[in-house]
Amino acid sequence: MSCLLGDLLGVDGSMVYGLATPQKYAAFGLIVESDIDLPELAVSEGCADVRVILGKTPDHLNAAAEKTPWYEVASGAFLLKVTGVANYYVECGNLITVEPRIGAPAEDLKVFLFDTVFAALLQQRGFLALHGSVVAVDGKALVLLGASSVGKTTIALALHDRGFPLLADEVCAVGMRDGKAAVFPGLPQLNVWEDTLLAAGKNVSGYRPIRQGLGKYAFRVEDRFCEEAVGLNTIVLLKGHNREVFEAETIRGGAKFESLLANAFFAGTAADKSRLFGLCAAALASRVVQVTFNNRTHDVDSVVDFILKELA
What we know:
Elements: H1 5-8, E1 18-27, E2 30-36, E3 42-43, E4 50-54, E5 66-67, E6 71-74, E7 77-82, E8 86-91, E9 95-100, H2 106-124, E10 128-137, E11 140-146, H3 152-161, E12 166-168, E13 171-177, E14 180-184, E15 189-193, H4 194-199, E16 208-209, E17 216-220, E18 230-240, E19 247-250, H5 254-262, H6 273-283, E20 287-293, H7 300-311
Helix pairs in contact: 3-7
């Protein structure tokens, strides 16, 4: 195992985060071999596409195309620093190095791994990584995009409760399958705020917090989860307003392309721009519709009804 034993061993010599033997899991159409226990993912077999190891990360990236106090992006490299939790280094689309901070809870460690870090990995591998939720409707992927707190996960949960299988939450991996754009399955769970669970009539005590003190819980969906890639059919851009009416507008032309890039992780730093644009073009063969509603007065069931009516 690749790790810094002095940093990662407990006082009794036991591993704080690591596994004695790396385990293989399935995520986003990839086989991930990890030194970190990831029970949120389905166990898998076969040759690993990606390795997750415990080890030392670089302090900075050389020739960073984008640099902030929290992350740096360079060609084939991504560095994320989360104070009090861990540093994460992603390179060449096949290796993730995690350097935990002493005392960081394992749950906190995995929140960033499954979100921003995997999104950077997917981008390096040539996927279009979108910040959204995805369900399968009539065997086709319905992607929900929009600003934070607009209701992507809330609507995905309501669709799941109506019997529609989940494909992904937080990170939507769009790639090519049989020459067409498809969405590849992520984690079999939704990360749901406490008030959303309560509004849906669910007992919060039955769910695990995804991070200490955050008030967000892991809603597992193994019973209705797509384990295979699903063709992309419709992208719904969710937008709030103060009026009492629902509005739906089909997006066309260059605005479709802009809507994808606005909701993509690190699209501006993609090393292979032609591949990214080609994938965007394939994704935009699907319908893109903007649904505008008042999320203070319109309950989630009425929003879901309106979306499903638009898809009919």
